[in-house]
Task: structure prediction
Amino acid sequence: MGSTVEADDMIESDIVSIARHYDLEHQELKLIEEMGELADAIGDGEESHIVEESADVILVLLETMVQRGCVDGMFACMAWKAKRTLMRIDAEEADGR
Result:
């Protein structure tokens, strides 16, 4: 079994290949479909189904971000939002919540 870095590189390469094959409109419609399937899986509560549908949503979302050329911007935004949430948690804990 290869290292995590090798697996990450393979997944990234696959995402780029898929993004190049399909057009943005196709992938955005696919993303909407996959998000609906994830919502259904969450409603069902079956963990394996949630994992599978989450993977589908994340993959197609990343493909659309590649197509738009904004993967780095998305990850920067995610990092900022995570930090903001941690600051909110710190403030809640300081207030005794």
The domain at 4-70 is CATH 1.10.287 (Helix Hairpins). The mean pLDDT is 92.
